[in-house]
DNA sequence: CCCGGCATCAGCCAAAAGGCGGAGAGACCA
DNA sequence: TGGTCTCTCCGCCTTTTGGCTGATGCCGGG
């Protein structure tokens, strides 16, 4: 049996080096390449077609992890993409799964969990950390709390600190409509004021 | 010459393991212990009185990095504390320096920079990444934009989505005073509304 | 073809937030 | 002692926001 080949994508050298050290302890797993950005990852996968791509979502400048996943999937369906990141925001999870990620593991996971995720991904199985799975269930159970595209768009601008008037101009809708959307958003997020909505959006929904 | 002993504090195993691998390549630096939380760090430093403590600021549950630095400094002035973290938010930097950190290095720094920081800290010198130094200068140049302790406290609660009334109750001050503080905060942050203030606070000031 | 969800808009009213000027007490420093 | 900060508080007025009710057009599934 050939070992599982892995491509690491993370903008932090320490993380890559730590991951390599960890994975190196497993005889059936080999790190064949590393990349510090989405761009590098796309290039690296040409040279080293790995079985599993472990990817961070937040990567400083340039292409973000989600975009990188999409392009990787487009370029070739050979390798499975495993998200390996710090945060478990609802929005990130949904977007990653949507982009075609096979698994979602948090950086504070135990080594065994990480190994299991890599092996699972290599076999085409979905693996995710408990908190991540729990969030996904949450969403499935309460579809009433899922924002519509328009609401999400508005919320995103809201976190930029715009007033109702400004939101209206930006989205080419009347202030009245802005208010209606806001009322719906508040209900779905479980808040009463725009201030709280912004706080929730940035922290929970990951709208940075 | 004895090698420099280092204690690593970070809640992510991958980061600790990567850092250990990196520092291990330097003959004059030895990692003598690791800790995954502020509490563990305080205990570990008793067993292994290291020359330098490398500490992350964001550490999930429990004591945060700033608090850990303060307690470490109280417990013993022997070791130098070097902050090693992902973000360079103004608030974090100021608070860390205030708590007694000797240096501030970002996780995306080059290995040489990390080594230099460890050696510097061991010799009692201050070392910080360029972006960090730049932010500090910024603050020195514009002291008008630095929040007072009370203002920072209020802003922190503001990002929780509280109303003026709630802020007043929480801080045992009148709503009028809350408004006064807010006006000052808005001026310092360069915004006009509480929504924008929250956005800036969470993103720029790192008040998560 | 009707119903439900979505997006759009209106008007009314109460509450909250924000702008402005003024002011006193305590701390700290030159 | 005088000047400067910081924190505290007041009143008055305008703007913004949020709650409520109701309505229209569009689209897609049953």
Protein architecture, described:
Two copies of one chain form a homodimer. Chain A is of the alpha/beta class and 208 residues long. Chain A is 53% helix and 14% strand. Chain A contains ten helices and six strands, in the order βαβαβαβαβαβααααα. Chain A has helices spanning 13-24, 38-47, 65-75, 90-99, 111-122, 130-141, 149-158, 164-171, 175-189, 194-203, and strands spanning 4-9, 29-35, 52-55, 80-85, 103-106, 127-128. A six-stranded parallel beta sheet of chain A has the order 2-1-3-4-5-6, sandwiched between helices. In chain A, helix 4 links the parallel strand 4 and strand 5. In chain A, helix 2 packs parallel to helix 3 (65-75), helix 3 runs parallel beside helix 4 (90-99) and helix 9 (175-189) crosses helix 10 (194-203). The radius of gyration of chain A is 19 Å and the shape is elongated. The A-B interface holds A 11-22, 60, 86, 107-108, 110-111, 114, 158-163, 191, 193-200, 202-203, 208 and B 11-22, 60, 86, 107-108, 110-111, 158-163, 191, 193-200, 202-203, 208. The structure holds a DNA duplex (30 and 30 nucleotides).
Write the element-wise H/E pattern of chain A from the N-terminal end onward: EHEHEHEHEHEHHHHH
Which strands sit side by side, in order, in the main sheet of chain A? 2-1-3-4-5-6
Strand-residue proportion of chain A:
5-15%
Query: What's the Cα radius of gyration of chain A?
Result: 19 Å
Q: What separation lies between the terminal Cα atoms of chain A?
A: 44 Å
Main interface: chain pair and counts: A-B, 37 and 36 residues
User: What structural class results from the helix and strand content of chain A?
Assistant: alpha/beta
Overall geometry of chain A: elongated
Biggest sheet overview of chain A: 6 strands, parallel
The percent of residues in helical segments of chain A reads 40-55%
Mean pLDDT of chain A: 87
How many H/I helices of chain A?
Answer: 10
DSSP E strands of chain A, number: 6
Seen as an oligomer or otherwise, the chain set is homodimer
Low-confidence stretches of chain A: none
């Amino acid at each position: 049996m050939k070992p599982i080949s892995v491509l690491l994508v993370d903008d932090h050298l320490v993380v890559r080096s730590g991951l390599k050290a960890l994975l190196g302890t497993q005889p059936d797993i080999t790190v064949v390449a590393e990349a510090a950005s989405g761009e590098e990852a796309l290039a690296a996968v040409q040279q080293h077609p790995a079985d599993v791509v472990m990817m961070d979502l937040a990567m400083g400048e340039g292409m973000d992890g989600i975009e990188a996943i999409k392009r990787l999937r487009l370029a070739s369906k050979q390798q499975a993409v495993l998200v390996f990141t710090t945060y478990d925001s609802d929005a990130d999870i949904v977007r990653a799964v949507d982009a075609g990620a096979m698994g979602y593991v948090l950086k504070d996971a135990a080594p065994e969990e990480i190994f299991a995720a890599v092996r699972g991904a290599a076999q085409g199985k979905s693996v995710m950390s408990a908190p991540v799975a729990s969030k996904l269930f949450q969403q499935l159970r309460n579809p009433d709390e899922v924002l519509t595209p328009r609401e999400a768009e508005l919320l995103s601008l809201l976190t930029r600190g715009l007033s109702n008037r400004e939101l209206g101009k930006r989205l080419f809708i009347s202030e009245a409509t802005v208010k209606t959307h806001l009322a719906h958003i508040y209900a779905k997020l479980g808040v009463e004021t725009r201030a709280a909505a912004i706080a929730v959006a940035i922290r929970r929904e990951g709208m940075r």
